[in-house]
Each structure stands twice: as structure tokens, then as C-alpha cells.
Design goal:
single chain, about 375 residues, alpha+beta, FAD/NAD(P)-binding domain, nine-stranded mixed β-sheet, five-stranded parallel β-sheet
Length: about 375
């Protein structure tokens, strides 16, 4: 059954799709959102690290003030295990209230869902997409329930979960997994995050409420073994791995693991179809870039739509401009995270010494600190 043509169709009502829809609404453009998950789907238990730039986007959309349980990161301590070199970043040195923010994924999605309703954005839950057909005049979406919908612009923001995901233009399997859980430390976090590089991969502690969110990277087989350890053995292993900068590790919550890889599918940006967020690129979680790049995808696309005439919406010229405008930020994020993983996830002596010198330079040179911090907060264009 065919339905009337909408101006913009968005596949995926997660944070990236929701931000895109709300930003389009601010531009006076009505979007229709389809989400495969039911409206009462079980809440996601992941933890998010938002950059200061992402906070600015959420503030402009009126979402930020609706969020609860947000923990600011005012300092970041960067080091490598078993070698010289420490760097410290502080929000006050950069002139921002916080370098980033930590909050539950479910908190953000709940606030965005409420905001979509308040803004009158049409969202349909429990609607899976069978296939998408690019076209010269409109893109066509075939839903699993038999409906056919069309729009001059179709935005895929489903996190790359759809059945018709194009093969990546390039990808890298790091043979690593992340072990994630909440941990309680002897010393209070004082809003300081830690990024500690080890030969097995980075380990991050992100302040969250009165404890930390842990992201412990290890080789895939080792990560599964670590996650399965009883609490006491897990805490002892973490103590040996991370060290005693926060005193003893006292408690650990349930552990989950997920594989880590780099995959660049690209925005597609042709045939009136554009991919954003994890549907376009997947990054290693080191330095917390992936999710924030996705929010910038959504914001920049909506801004460009607002500057485009109705007759040119979704056309080749507009989508080429979007792909061109996002290239520096996306490729910069991919390159930066890939460099960190490959440079730091080894125990090669010359590289170990080079890493130490790099961290010492970062600590000693305020302009370099500002350069790095701004790119972590706002992307490759700073």
C-alpha cells in the first residue's frame, strides 16, 4: 500500500535519528521517523560520553535541561602503563565548563523521545524496513508491514542494523573487545576521567554518579575471560591492570562485552539516500569520538536542509555538499582513533619511548593541549 510522499523520512529513532528530526523541526521541516523497535522496548544499559560540542547541540534543541544524572568531566588524566609520560587536560584551561559529560544512554533516549512528542514529530515504532530504493526524484522505502513510503530525502540513522547495509569501503578488525561495567573506587572521582594505554589496548574510567564507568579493552579471547571472572577476581585483575591512582577498586557491576572495529561505509549521499551516525561509520571507543560524530552528522545535515530550497531537497547537489562538508570531521575522527589504537596497543620499545615523548609534549605545551582538547570536543575542524 502506497502512502503520500513526505519531505524527509528518517529510519531510526535512536539519539542520532531523533536529533536529526528535532533539528529539522527547528528548520521548519517536517520529518517522519520509523523505528524498528517497539515503543516499550527494554531500555539500553550503555553509558554515553558526550563532548562539550554535543552538549551545545542538545542545548540548541532544548533537550539538555531535560536530562538528569549527567556527570561532568572537568579533567582527563592520560598515561601509558609501565612507561614515562603523563598528560592532563583541564576544562578551566580550555575555557569551557566541562570537557565532556557522562550519562546513561537510556536517560538521553527517554528525553529525546519526550521531546519528539512535544515537538509533534511523527514517529512510528515497531516498523521494520525491508528495503530502500534510491531514485532520481524520490527514495522509496518498503516496510515489513507491506507499506511503501517515498520522500525526496531518506535518512538512514539505524546504527547500521538494517538488512541492507552496504559493504564497508574499508574496515579494520582490531581483534579486541571492550569489557564495560560500573566500578566503585576507594577515592572519589572528583570529576576526573582516566585514559590509560596498555599493550593490550586502552582502559578508560569515566566519572558516573558516585562511581566510574569502565571501558577495558583487551584481545577478544582475553576480554571474554576477564568478563566472566567472579567479582573479587575481576577487581584484583583490574587493580593490577590499572594501578592504584584511585585507590582500591571496591565493587564491580555486571560485565558486558562488545567487539571493536573500524568500519567506514560512507554517507552514501546519492539517489536521495544519506546515511548518518553508525550507519555511516563505526569507530573504536578510544577518546569517545564515534557517538559525538554521529550527533554532528545529524546536526549538519539538518542545517544544510534548512539552507536548501524545497525543490533541491535531497538532490544530488545538496547531498554532494553534505558529503563534502562532513569528510574532514569524519575522516579526521576515524584517523585519530585508529592512530591511537595502533600506536598505543603494543609494547614495541621505540614506539613506547615515542609515546612517552608525545605525552610529555602534550603536558608541557598549552597550545598543543588546546588543539587536542578542541578536536575532542568539536571534531577535526576544532
Amino acid at each position: 500500500m502506497d502512502e503520500p510522499v513526505s519531505r524527509v523520512l528518517i529510519v531510526g529513532a535512536g539519539p542520532v535519528g531523533a536529533v536529526c528530526a528535532l533539528a529539522l523541526r527547528q528548520q521548519g521541516i517536517a520529518a517522519r521517523v520509523l523505528e524498528a523497535q517497539p515503543a516499550d522496548a527494554r531500555a539500553d544499559t550503555r553509558t554515553l560520553a558526550l563532548s562539550h560540542g554535543s552538549r551545545l547541540i542538545l542545548e540548541r534543541l532544548g533537550v539538555w535541561d531535560r536530562l538528569h544524572g549527567v556527570t561532568p568531566i572537568t579533567r582527563i588524566h592520560i598515561s601509558q602503563r609501565g612507561a614515562l609520560g603523563v598528560a592532563r587536560l583541564a576544562a578551566e584551561e580550555i575555557g569551557v565548563p566541562a570537557l565532556g559529560y557522562v550519562l546513561p544512554y537510556a536517560e538521553l533516549t527517554a528525553a529525546l523521545k519526550q521531546m519528539l512528542g512535544d515537538a509533534g514529530v511523527a514517529v512510528e515504532y515497531g516498523v521494520a524496513v525491508d528495503r530502500i530504493e534510491p531514485g532520481a526524484e524520490a527514495a522509496t522505502l518498503h516496510a515489513a508491514d507491506g507499506r511503501t513510503l517515498a520522500a525526496p530525502l531518506l535518512v538512514v540513522a539505524d546504527g547500521g542494523r538494517g538488512d541492507q547495509v552496504p559493504p564497508p569501503r574499508f574496515e579494520r578488525d582490531y581483534d579486541q573487545m571492550a569489557v564495560v561495567c560500573d566500578v566503585k573506587t576507594e577515592l572519589p572521582h572528583a570529576n576526573q576521567a582516566f585514559e590509560r594505554f596498555t599493550p593490550q589496548g586502552p582502559a578508560a574510567l569515566l566519572p558516573k554518579d558516585d562511581r566510574y564507568a569502565l571501558v577495558w579493552t583487551a584481545r577478544s579471547d582475553e576480554a571474554q575471560r576477564i568478563a566472566a571472572l567472579p567479582d573479587a577476581e575481576f577487581l584484583a585483575a583490574l587493580q593490577r591492570h590499572f594501578g592504584g591512582r584511585q585507590g582500591r577498586f571496591l565493587q564491580a557491576g555486571p560485565r558486558k562485552t562488545f567487539p571493536l572495529r573500524l568500519a567506514y561505509t560512507g554517507s552514501e549521499a546519492a539517489g536521495r539516500v544519506v546515511r548518518i551516525g553508525n550507519a555511516a561509520q563505526t569507530l573504536h571507543p578510544v577518546a569517545g569520538q564515534g557517538f559525538n560524530i554521529g550527533l554532528r552528522d545529524a546536526w549538519e545535515l539538518a542545517s544544510l536542509c534548512g539552507d536548501t530550497t524545497e525543490t533541491e531537497m535531497g538532490g544530488a547537489t545538496m547531498l554532494a555538499a553534505y558529503a563534502r562538508g562532513r569528510r574532514t570531521d569524519v575522516m579526521g575522527g576515524l584517523g585519530f582513533t585508529d592512530f591511537l589504537v595502533r600506536m598505543f596497543s603494543n609494547d614495541v620499545a621505540p614506539l613506547r619511548h615515542a609515546r612517552g615523548l608525545g605525552l610529555l609534549a602534550l603536558e608541557a605545551l598549552p597550545p598543543l593541549k588546546t588543539f587536542v582538547a578542541r578536536r575532542m570536543m568539536f571534531g577535526a575542524r576544532g
